[in-house]
Design brief:
By secondary structure, the protein is α+β, with helices and mostly antiparallel strands. Helices cover 17% and strands 32% of the residues. The protein is built from nine helices and 32 strands. The strands form eight sheets. The chain has a six-stranded antiparallel β-sheet, covered by helices on one side. A five-stranded antiparallel β-sheet has the order 12-32-31-30-29. It is elongated and about 90 Å long.
């Protein structure tokens, strides 16, 4: 058997039949891709070369693609050969490879188009077998499915309505496709059918919605094992705004057993259209459960230097009866209304059930703690003279400044303990490793048990993220002087710039301790939230308004009230 001819490589300006090569665009699974000019029809085309001999496999690929005529499938114009190797001449599409995460409405719109393209191919007995984001271009007209070069040409006989007869394009058990987007049966070398493409489409849709792959592993062996044996996290657990119907639809695509998946792309497309109609009628707001514990805490986003602020939840998520939580921070018992002082915005406990603040009574400023389901609170003994308060990561203790010292005390009452001498006040954050990062005129890393202090860079409003290693803070850009939100690994100094903002930014986890949630901040009297993964340090999606801010009134003899409603 003669060896395969060398792969075709075109130089810019050379000719491939009547096509003048303009430039190399990249490489695909089957060969290289070039932009070229059709000198006969004066149009731009894409040329894809073949790795290997011009063969039955190549001719079958060309025949399969030429049978497809759909607005969301790249059109095959011509086929040619040179020195024993072949090439395809295809429609040139200007666009970018599909990338997530996308807004739900956009993901549904593009998903419906992909399902329609698969339906058209499957009706002609053609499987894609290599569906992945890199083979889906997003252009002004929507999506275009590329590279059916790994498709299996299927012919249905007159008495085989439910069976498939496949052309012998590959050896028995040979794997064809891109591993991360393969169905279990493809990995096992078993016969594939339309439901294999549906599994791959489920993986693509998962990534469109969450920005993450459904299956990930450190090696190809681990990845194959994950696809064969493991169940991926539900998309809604990563992106709570995904409606249950769409979450279920994706999960059904990813069933290990083909019989439990969507059986046709047509049915899947109909389901996505049904979900899209409901989505377009739904209010554009973030899920309530992601923010219930955090609305009061987010008040810090605009309160610094301007007294206490109040944020209200301004959107209803569903027509179901709305639970209302009201928190009134009136002068605590024993405090003097006319001398009521809020030195800082209230500090919300990690579990979201307690609020700590500074209030002034007969013994001067003290830390007061109040449950969210109560209208009264209690003063923490030994916190006289306190000027700043923050919570321990377990929510059992409070840290505070008083008399030039940093101290801690049990939140329910007990003897305060000195941690170290520290000028203040400022702001502070406490991680699960027993380290406090305190910022004031100087920033310090402080070991709680020993009181040892290490100088750190000057920052504002530091907050440890759930891993206890990274710090979210505000700082000025040395070049422009503008304020930016950064995340930094405090031990190594590796820094990531997040956004330009003049207000404090806080991280609101989906669930206590979760690395997935939202960054919340204020802009132009509006409370905004944007998806943020504290593990990958990536923002995704667009900022969404979730509430409006207003100032509390302060008049002689009247109390200052903070209110949280949802």
């Amino acid at each position: 058997m003669s060896p395969d001819p060398p792969e075709i490589r075109f130089a810019s300006g050379s000719m491939a039949g009547p096509y003048r090569i303009v430039e190399r665009l990249g490489a695909g699974g089957m060969g290289e891709v070039y932009r070229a000019q059709d000198t006969r029809l004066n149009r731009t085309v894409a040329i894809k070369t073949l790795k290997g001999r011009f063969s039955e496999r190549f001719e079958l690929e060309a025949r399969a693609i030429s049978a497809l005529n759909h607005p969301h499938i790249c059109t095959l114009y011509d086929i040619g050969s040179q020195d024993g190797s072949g090439y395809l001449v295809m429609e040139y599409v200007e666009g970018e490879p599909l990338k997530g995460p996308l807004r739900i409405g956009e993901a549904l719109r593009l998903g419906i188009q992909i399902a329609g393209a698969l339906e058209a191919a499957h009706e002609k007995g053609i499987l894609h077998r290599d569906l992945k984001p890199g083979n889906i271009l997003v252009s002004k007209g929507g999506v275009k499915l590329l590279d059916f070069g790994l498709a299996k040409f299927v012919q249905l006989g007159p008495h085989q309505d439910n069976a498939t007869v496949t052309a012998p394009l590959t050896g028995v058990g040979q794997i064809i496709g891109t591993l991360a987007y393969m169905s279990p049966e493809q990995i096992e070398g078993k016969p594939a059918d339309a439901r294999s493409d549906i599994f791959s489409f489920g993986l693509v849709l998962y990534e469109m919605l969450t920005g993450r792959r459904a299956f990930e592993a450190a090696s190809n062996t681990g990845l194959m094992a994950a696809i064969l044996k493991e169940e991926p996290r539900s998309p809604a657990s990563l992106e709570p705004s995904i409606p249950p119907s769409l979450d279920r639809t994706v999960s059904k695509c990813l069933a290990k057993d083909p019989a439990r998946r969507w059986q046709t792309a047509a049915d899947l497309g109909d389901e996505l259209e049904w979900i899209a109609k409901g989505e377009s009628a739904a209010p554009r707001a973030l899920p309530r459960r992601a923010f219930l514990p955090w609305v009061a805490g987010a008040a810090v986003a605009g309160a610094a230097g301007a007294g206490a602020a109040v944020w209200t939840w301004g959107r209803k998520i569903a027509p179901a009866p709305t639970a209302v939580i009201r928190l009134q921070l009136a002068p605590p018992a024993g405090a003097w209304p006319q001398r009521q002082i809020e030195r800082q915005s209230p500090a919300l406990s990690p579990a979201g059930n307690l609020v700590a603040r500074i209030a002034t009574g007969e013994r001067g400023p003290m830390v007061w703690v109040q449950r969210l389901d109560s209208l009264t609170g209690h003063a923490v003994p030994g916190t006289e003279g306190a000027t700043m308060v923050f919570w321990s990561p377990d929510g059992r203790s409070i840290g505070f400044w008083a008399g030039g010292k940093l101290k801690k005390a049990p939140a329910e009452g007990g003897t305060p303990l000195r941690i170290c001498d520290l000028p203040g006040p400022g702001s502070a954050t406490w991680n699960q490793n027993g380290v406090i990062l305190a910022s004031g005129r100087t920033s310090w890393l402080i070991t709680v048990n020993s009181g040892a202090k290490t100088p750190w860079k000057q920052v504002s409003w530091p907050k440890f993220l759930p891993d206890g290693k990274h710090v979210l803070y505000m700082s000025r850009d040395p070049k422009t002087g503008g304020k930016w939100a950064y995340v930094e690994e405090y031990s190594s100094g590796r820094q990531t710039a997040l956004m330009h903002t003049d207000t404090q930014v806080v991280f609101a986890a989906d669930q206590p301790g979760s690395s997935r949630g939202y960054l919340v901040w204020g802009r132009n009297a509006t409370l905004l939230a944007q998806r943020f993964d504290a593990e990958t340090l990536r923002l995704s999606g667009e900022p969404v308004p979730i509430g409006k801010r207003f100032r509390s009134s302060r008049t002689a003899g009247r109390s200052s009230t903070h209110r949280r409603e949802s």
